[in-house]
Amino acid sequence: MKTAGQKPYLKVNYSYLSRQFAEIDPILEGIRELVKSGDFTLGKPVVEFEQKFASLLGARHAVGVGSGTDALFLTLKAVGVGPGDEVVTAANTFVATAGAIETAGAKIVFVDCDEKSVIDVEKIEAAITRKTKAILPVHWAGQPADMTKILAIAKKHKLTVVEDACQAIDAAIDGKRCGTFGIGGCFSLHPLKNLNVWGDGGVIITDDETLRDRLRLLRNHGMSDRDSYAFFAYNSRLDSLQAVVGNHLIKDTKWITDSRIKNAERLDAALGRLKGKVVLSPRSKNERHVYHLYQFFAEDRDALLAYLRERGVGAKVHYPVPLHLQPAAKPLGYKKGDFPVAEAQAARILTLPVHQHLTDEELEHIIRCVEDFYS
Length: 375
Ligand SMILES: Cc1ncc(COP(=O)(O)O)c(C=O)c1O
Fold this sequence. Notes:
By secondary structure, this protein is of the alpha/beta class. The chain folds into two domains: 20-251, Type I PLP-dependent aspartate aminotransferase-like (Major domain) (Aspartate Aminotransferase, domain 2, 3-Layer(aba) Sandwich); 253-374, Alpha-Beta Complex (Aspartate Aminotransferase, domain 1). Helix content is 37%, strand content 15%. α4 (68-78) runs parallel beside α5 and α10 runs parallel beside α13. The radius of gyration is 21 Å and the shape is globular. The chain starts with 16 loop residues before the first helix and ends with a helix. Bound molecules: pyridoxal-5'-phosphate (PLP).
């Protein structure tokens, strides 16, 4: 324990937003221009952001929407998912993945995750029924799901694949970006995502023109023009103001990705020495994990979490209870033991700060605290 007279612990925040947006003048200048133009809804900055986003990830089209959750929900709607259908996804994801399936009117079907915390491709087929319409893999934490196997299963059972890439901008398998494997890839621009804006925002990428056109209608009241409505729909447009922020930041994506990978490699090297206490997920050379979250499995996780927090390290748990055991999942009829890997991981998983603005001193402090705890 820290005694009187000792230096206070270095504070290593989980959030890095004050550093990321320390230089806001260029963004404010863009917003000044936006206000002058009055181009507030689906304006020029949105079109510019969509073009930049698609080109960054090697997709033909991008459609900006109100959030990552809307990106998922609207894409499911657009590919025809609705009441009576089932959608297969991972049990260890963020609640929004499941929420989007439910909001689309379909039944959520969970599958366990594997040792990398992505959907276990060996268990997908057992979850497929005559009602299954789509597979919704999640590139959890920025770690690509096994898209080769998922696409093969989808082809065999004639299913649509929509990717939840909300945590995985710039992640890739053999250089091909996550979000470009299925018919649509869904991203979040939430303030804590690797590429973030000043509130909510989301994007879908696709090579499919029909999907692009349907999403453009779905996000904007079904309006084909001001006075014609193709169908009744939603209002979920990427805000022009958020697009201004995104346009400013998107050029830094490579630096953000590289910095997070570099930080994760240092954490891996240090934590990898704590054998028996700490388990790291296997890392695949052909996959680019972009470390939206740096996670590992810790012995005595809750005590380590408290120890780190006392020493100023903003560690977190994503998440302590998997979705199938949440009150929201009660109507689905799952029980404890149904997804043993997700359940075991939830009890041991811990997230450390890994963001692009960490200093060497902060990284060393995180590492020292974990080492001290186990020594
Ligand atoms: C895996 C996953 N899916 C979906 C979402 C939803 O994104 P948003 O918060 O932008 O609605 C998030 C992020 O919060 C997420 O982490």
